[in-house]
Amino acid sequence: MSQTPSRATRTDAVTNRARILAAAGEAFAASSSASMTSIAKQAGVGVGTLYRHFPTREVLIVELYHQEIQKVIDLAHTLAASLAPLDALRRWFDEVARYGQLKYGVAEVIHAATNGGLDDENYEPFLGAIAVLLAAGVAEGTLKPGTDPEDVLLQLSVLWRIPPGPDSQKRAARILDLVIDGLRTRPSAP
To answer: Are residues 92 and 180 in the same domain?
Structure first.
């Protein structure tokens, strides 16, 4: 038997999995109550195909979480290498806010799957991403030295409590302005 059909099947499986994750990301960002059937339809696959890849809604949410958080972590390093520190920090925070829309409403599933964050393999890398961006700003003199990345993460956690809606992006932008303002250095008083 030729290996071409199995490779084609494997390629289809990889493609289907990616389409399901992309559709799930859009669906959960729009509504935390998106059904598995609607996600399968949006991905252009059958419900059986979706369940072969993700046997439960929780498995799908956790896989999507790992995929999306890794993108956010990787982006910090890219931005730190290519933009001025404050611009990099703001662009990264904007992406964290976008991610927060995905996490809104499914946070309970993620929280349960990671034992309240204690077993989250992404926690330390996420803190590391924050540290990279803070260090660049400290080196430039635009951000306060000694800021704990965990403190920044706690401030950012409010982003996944903003309910999706027409004003959610504006609210996130206002909150991020406050966070960045608090991180900036201040001119010395005369």
So the answer is: yes
């990889």: which residue's tokens? Answer: 14
Quick one: average pLDDT of 126-141? Answer: 96
What is d(CA 90, CA 184) in angstroms, rounded to the nearest whole number? 12
Give yes or no for a contact between 126 and 70, defined as CB atoms under 8 angstroms apart. Answer: no
Residue 87: domain span: 58-190
138 and 165 share one domain: yes
Angle 62-131-164 from CA coordinates, rounded to 5° = 45
Which residue has 């790992």 as its token pair?
66
Residues 45 and 123 in one domain: no
Angle at the Cα of 154 from the Cα atoms of 150 and 157, rounded to 5 degrees? 130
Per-residue pLDDT reduced to its tens digit, 114-125: 655 556 788 899
Cα radius of gyration (the chain) = 19
